[in-house]
Design a protein that fits this description.
- There is one protein chain.
- By secondary structure, the chain is an alpha/beta fold.
- Helices cover about 35% and strands about 25% of the residues.
- A hairpin with a 2-residue loop joins strand 8 (about 195-200) and strand 9 (about 200-205).
- The chain starts with 7 loop residues before the first strand and ends in a 10-residue tail after the last strand.
- The chain binds 5-O-phosphono-beta-D-ribofuranosylamine (GRF).
- 5-O-phosphono-beta-D-ribofuranosylamine binds near residues 17, 19, 116, 177 and 180.
């Protein structure tokens, strides 16, 4: 039987899983607002993050997207696996698939994604390269609520990273990644503790729906 008083998190990955690792460590240290990672789902069997989960005894599930005739069918399979495990919060952590309304509607206001730029600047792939090419002096990381439009949902948390004269895509990405690892657990904790949505604005604080008893 699941302990339903603890918010259960499903983490979706496709690769390296360093943000997953940060979430695992934050969970162990009690920094996820009491939430527990229940399952890690990957669309790729070779995702390195699967080993990170297995190493600490977190259940893993592989759902190869190629096995489904459409994005919607794939999303239905994802939703099924997450619901079966009573997951209420979903974290996309380097999950390289666009999700559809099928997925978003299944977990309203409860799907998070992390992106390596200060959104709405530089959505989509290669955000660090885009930032350097544009010549910005500050970039960073964003955790946002997921909507079917890529990297466009309401912003939960952001952190800035200064661009240095000598930066390459790799060096900038590395400093942003270090910030991501702090930001994602903090965002999960804040979402678990409750927020309200006013238009696009995510607002935290006591009195927010979901914050009762937090
Ligand atoms: C991170 O830079 C994240 O912002 C982006 O994909 C990368 C995933 O890295 N969405 P990892 O798999 O968490 O190491």
């Amino acid at each position: 039987m699941e302990n339903t008083s603890v918010p259960l998190v499903g983490v979706l990955i496709s690769g390296r899983g360093s943000n997953l690792q940060a979430l695992i460590e934050a969970g162990k240290a009690g920094r996820l607002g009491g939430a527990r990672i229940r399952v890690v789902v990957s669309n790729r069997r070779d995702a390195q993050g699967l080993q990170r989960a297995e190493a600490v005894g977190i259940e893993t599930v592989v759902i190869p997207h190629q096995a489904y005739p459409s994005r919607e069918e794939f999303d239905r399979a994802l939703v099924g696996e997450l619901r079966r495990r009573a997951v209420t919060i979903v974290c996309l952590a380097g999950f390289m698939r666009l999700v559809t309304a099928v997925f978003c509607d299944a977990f309203p206001g409860a799907i998070l994604n992390i992106h390596p730029s200060l959104l709405p600047a530089f959505p989509g792939p290669d955000a660090q390269r885009q930032a350097l090419a544009h010549g910005v002096k500050v970039s960073g990381a964003t955790v946002h609520l997921v909507t079917p439009e890529l990297d466009a949902g309401p912003i939960v948390c952001q952190a800035a990273v200064a661009v240095r004269e000598e930066d390459t895509v790799e060096s900038l990405a590395e400093r942003i990644l270090a910030v991501e690892h702090q930001l994602y657990p903090e965002a999960v904790r804040r979402v678990v503790e409750g927020f309200t949505l006013e238009g696009r604005r995510v607002r935290f604080g006591s009195g927010a729906p979901g914050s009762e008893g937090a």
